[in-house]
Design brief:
Blueprint: H1 2-18, H2 23-39, H3 46-96, H4 103-119, H5 125-167, H6 173-189, H7 195-203
Helix pairs in contact: 1-2, 1-3, 2-3, 3-5, 5-6
Length: 204
Amino acid sequence: AVTGKKKELIKQMQHLVESRMHAADRSRRIAAMHKEWKLLGLPSQNEGLWKKFKKFSDKAYAPCKIYFNERKQLMAANLKKRREICKQLEEYQAEIDKQPINLSELSKLFISTKEEWKRYAPVEQSKIKSLQKRYYGVLSQLRRIKKISLRENNIKKQEIIEQAKKLALIEDNRKAMREAKELQKSWEKIGPTSYKEDKKYWES
C-alpha cells in the first residue's frame, strides 16, 4: 500500500515538472509532497523510489530557484530604494527647520512619497519593521510641522482681518487705503491655511 502511494506521489511530481503553476505555489506543493512521502515510512523498495521521486522533485523545483533568487534581488533593491526615501525625507525635514515651510510643496511630497513607498515592495520581512518605524517617524514629524504652520498662518490671517476691520472706522480715506494696501502685502506673505479656511478668511 505504501509503495503504491509513493508511486502515485512520483507520478504527481512528474506532472508538476510540466505544469505552469506559479513558483511560490509550486514550492509549497513540493514541500507538501515531501512531507507526505516522509510520513509513509521506509518500505524495502524505498531507495529506488526515492531516487525517482527526488529526480522529478529537483526538476520541478528548478523554476522556484530562479523565482526566489530574482525575488531576493528585487527585495534588496526595494530595501535600498526605501532607505533612500527615508533619507530624502529626513534631509527635507532638516532643511525646513532652517527656513520657512512651503505647505504646498510639503503636501505634494506626502502624495509622491506614499506612491513611491508602495511601488518599492516587497521588502525582506526581517528588515521591514525598523524601516517602517523610520519612515512613519519622519512623516509624523513633518505632519506635526505642517499642523503648527497652519495654526500659525490661521492666527496671522485673523490678526490682519482684525486690523482691516479697524480701517473701516478711520475717517481719513487715503490713510485707510494706504494701510489696506500694506495689509494686503502682509497677507500675501503668509502661507496657506486649509482651502475652506483660506476662502473664508479672504472673503472676511
